[in-house]
Design brief:
By secondary structure, this protein is α+β, with helices and mostly antiparallel strands. 23% of the residues lie in helices and 32% in strands. The strands form three sheets. Strands 3, 4, 5, 6, 7, 8, 9, 10, 11, 12, 14, 17 and 19 form a 13-stranded mixed beta sheet that branches. The longest helix is centred in the middle third of the chain and has 17 residues.
Amino acid sequence: MKGSPITIGGQDVLPGETKKIELEMPPLYTATNMSIPVFVKRGKREGPTMFVSAAIHGDELNGIEIVSRLIRSKSITRLRGTLIAVPMVNVYGVLNQSRYLPDRRDLNRSFPGSKKGSLAGRLANLFFKEVVSKCDVGIDLHTGAIHRSNLPQIRADLDDADVLEMAKAFGVPVLLNAEIRDGSLRQAASEEGVKILLYEAGQALRYDEFSIRAGVRGIINTMRHLGMLNKRQSKGHDINRFIARQSGWVRAPESGFVTHITQLGDHVSKGDRLATVADPYGNVVSTILSPADGVIIGKQNIPLTQEGEAIYHIAYFKEPDTVAEHVELLQDNLILGDQTVVEEE
């Protein structure tokens, strides 16, 4: 209803208001109280309600900085609708520099959760009921796992026409039609009718400036597409979007020390040398080859591997060389000048 409040954590937020809300989390031990920080900004004019969430995995820190820059950006001053930005969902994990919760569960396999469940289930239920269920759309921010980097990419149900248009609007070249995993936020949100994108970029426990800039820009692009912000003339190179219907990991054929030949964003052809594996004496014991034409969208960073370990994540496209070219154009756009999104408008 027009003019009605949104209530989060018992606090009402009316159109035109901005509030920072501390959403009390399930306690760990006696007298140990913690909270999820929630930033809510409502425009005076009607529009969609969007959530942006980060650090569902506690060691994935890029998203925290993306949310921080987003809420400080002048671009969101004239907002239509409502933005709910959550820089840290898994606060426990952030404090412990851990992907998981103290009960050793993965929060992103625990949705929609339960009020009477495990710690993971209770936290999932709290975030889902207080934030996600009150939104029309959402963007969930992730990175690669520990010692792995991801090229900036959108993963989503691209068979949904509305989601596909949101994914294209975000503005990164690589769009991956990804299966929904049981217990994930994306699954629970989709079942609730919330259209959701998952942004993957960078690596755990590290900030990556390219990934951060692409993330902030992408969220603002999506908000413009949804009518939450005024549209404006885009600057820099035109970035095409490429949809991958399939992707796969290339695994180490032997244990040893890895020397990478290819990097994130590279176009590779079937049979190309991706990396070598050597023994402690420096003798090459194996060469890792590309199984097909594609673009590297994920890779392991640590130079040690065990036989069978995933080393490269390759997305398969009809024209992978063109995808790689547009990844470079995106980098040029984000590096062009020293101006960041915070300084816009």
